[in-house]
Design a protein that fits this description.
The protein is α+β, with helices and mostly antiparallel strands. Helices cover 15% and strands 37% of the residues.
């Protein structure tokens, strides 16, 4: 009798905490689907704030904030879609809960509205509009106290709001061409137009003069003197810079001191707290670190002080989301590790005491039965160091002999497998080790967390060197007597699903089973089925269906899956706007026509994820049972 997947899903998700007054607001799947709740800071039964029939999206897939609390207005702004179609619409809910009312009526019906950021004290919200049927992104700043919308224009490259000055007469907009390749513009109320602030627009580039990706992010005005922002211009692993906005724009690096973390990673976060105080964040070896820092403008220096998470009670894990209540000087954070479910914490007082507000547990399993994982990094085909982890069944489970391998590939590709219990993969990894599998999770080139040059190597090379990194990993695993590479199954979601299909078709001798979760099958039809606003990006990072036709055919799993030699399970959400159900339908139809052994599982009420508990249960069981059947642990 194997352990029940119910144990791994017994802890509920608690995400996106936001403190306002005496209440802590958050998103949770307490009812079996994502919804909005609040509790009293001193402890109380969670109060539902929206009707139970509404399923909110996974916050990790939302381009910005899922909700924001405006206590002065007695309102909550919450973004709602329709069962995973990602056409988010802003709704207003009373602070104590109620029936969501559309904030903008049907003005943007059928379009995706993203809440990029909000400013509680000024009652402001910045929106980016993805019309789906046109390549032009539009941006607005809304004043929730008056209902006014400030139109900031459009761009096929994003036009995202990155920051604003005190009186909204100057607003920074960012265009993005590919991951971290960004350009800043300054929109000015006096002209109603934007002008170039920093970076080189794509129209001004030539093939003879490469432009380093700037990696500009959130921008913070310092009066009329300049802007503090994130960048990769001066450090491949990220940092900050100062952009003067007076006579003659100048971009200079900001030095950062006082950090105590060790190991390789990236600068990830710059958030303004109050005055000269900022939060700075890092991803170090997949784990989250954050500090309070003081900005010395005269020296152009950020000095890190108190560690908020990364050591002490909040260590060796991931801060899924954090917020700061300026009025009470309190941080709220959702934090989890590879073996502990996500909990809500506040960090309070001058001593920055960590206060835990939830106590979610994995029911029926002792901690000694969970796998912490171990470093399994290796050298790839061209000498590149690849970070990876291997999760083995703990000894108390009693499994004997070399373990069959579940080879798990993350999505993105600009993502990273991290010790994060809030994400789909970590409970699944733990469940598979409980069922007797070794789970190998590589972060091959294209992954974030290892520097910009590492991440950018996947651009216009899907199925190239990234695929060869996986082949090198298999050779690496052959040297580990604890695992059995003759019993190996490959699985992944989204881009990880694409790579699963590539590996199963191009290297069929390696696999005894394959599981594709909403992965692109034919890159030509995949790119053409994307929303119009997404095509600009994917034409540059994957390929253009006309100019790069032969290349996309060569890199499509469809070209090779006639050689598939193992059974395959395909999982798909019917409402997926990213990898539409037609991709998986065609994959299944083609392979069955060739006599392949295919199982197909479609969730009618999901999109590019599984947010409903009953669907997760069914998917986890289907995955584990399929691998058990074909790998025989």
């Amino acid at each position: 009798m194997h352990p029940s997947v119910e144990s791994l899903l017994s802890p509920r998700l608690f995400l996106n905490p936001e403190l306002a007054g005496e209440h802590l607001y958050f998103v949770s799947d307490l009812s079996g689907r994502m919804s909005l709740y609040r509790i009293c800071r001193g402890g109380s039964v969670p109060e539902p704030l929206i009707p139970g029939g509404i399923a909110l999206a996974n916050p990790k897939l939302v381009g910005g904030e899922l909700f924001s609390v405006f206590p002065d207005l007695d309102e909550i702004l919450v973004m709602i879609d329709d069962d995973g179609d990602e056409n988010y619409q802003p709704h207003i809910v009373p602070l104590a809960g109620g029936i969501p009312e559309p904030m903008l009526g049907d003005r943007f019906a059928g379009q995706q509205v993203n809440l990029l950021w909000s400013h509680r004290n000024r009652h402001l919200a910045a929106f980016n509009i993805d019309p789906r049927v046109s390549p032009e992104h539009g941006s607005y700043v809304a004043d929730l106290s008056t209902g006014d919308l400030l139109d900031l224009g459009t761009s096929i490259y994003g036009n995202y709001v990155a920051g604003f000055n005190d009186d909204l007469t100057s607003i920074v907009l960012v265009d993005g061409y590919s991951a971290a390749d960004t350009v800043l513009y300054l929109w000015e109320k006096a002209t109603g137009q934007r002008r170039l602030l920093a970076g080189t627009p794509i129209e001004q580039r030539s093939a003879d003069t490469p432009v380093p990706p700037a990696g500009f992010g959130a921008c913070f005005f310092r009066g009329d003197r300049g802007i503090l922002t994130e960048t990769t211009l001066f450090d491949d692993r990220g940092g900050c810079c100062w952009i003067s906005i007076g006579e003659g724009v100048e971009v200079v690096p900001i030095t950062i001191g006082g950090t105590i973390h060790r190991g390789a990673g990236e600068f990830t976060t710059l958030e303004h707290l109050d005055g000269d105080r900022f939060l700075i964040g890092y991803n170090i070896g997949g784990c989250s670190w954050a500090y309070e820092a003081i900005f010395d403008e005269s020296a152009l220096h950020l000095e890190a002080g108190t560690v908020l998470w990364g050591e002490g009670p909040l260590h060796d894990g991931v801060a899924a989301h954090s917020s700061y209540d300026r009025d009470q000087d309190i941080f709220a954070v959702a934090f989890s590790t590879a073996t502990s479910p996500v909990q809500l914490f506040t960090i309070e007082g001058r001593e920055r005491c960590v206060v835990q507000h939830t106590n979610e547990r994995i029911l029926g399993l002792s901690s000694e039965l969970l796998s912490t994982g171990e470093d399994a990094s290796y050298t790839s085909h061209d000498g590149l160091h690849i970070s990876a982890r291997l999760y083995l069944p703990p000894e108390p489970l009693g499994f004997k002999g070399p373990r069959p391998i579940a080879y798990y590939i993350h999505g993105g590709p600009q993502s990273q497998e991290r010790p994060d219990f809030t994400w789909f993969s970590m409970p699944l990894i733990q469940y598979l080790t409980l069922r007797g599998f070794a789970v190998f999770v590589p972060n091959v080139r294209g992954s974030q967390g290892y520097g910009l040059s590492y991440m950018k190597q996947v651009d216009h090379d899907w199925g190239g060197k990234d695929r060869l990194d996986h082949i090198a990993a298999v050779e690496h695993l052959k040297n580990d007597a604890r695992v059995d590479t003759s019993r190996m199954g490959v699985l992944g979601r989204s881009y990880g699903g694409y790579m699963t299909l590539e590996l199963a078709g191009r290297h069929p001798d390696l696999w005894s089973a394959a599981i594709d979760m909403f992965g692109p099958y034919d890159l030509l039809t995949f790119v053409e089925s994307l929303p119009e606003t997404w095509k600009t990006y994917f034409y540059m990072t994957i390929g253009h269906p006309e100019r790069d036709h032969d290349f996309l055919v060569e890199r499509s799993p469809k070209t090779y899956l006639g050689d598939l030699a193992c059974p395959m399970l395909v999982i798909q959400g019917r409402n997926d706007p990213r990898v539409v159900v037609g991709e998986s339908d065609q994959l299944v139809d083609d392979l069955r026509a060739h006599g392949k052994e295919i199982e197909y599982l479609v969730f009618d009420d999901e999109g590019h994820d599984m947010v409903k508990r009953e669907n997760k249960l069914r998917a986890y069981e289907a995955i584990a049972d399929f691998l058990t059947k074909h790998l025989r642990p």
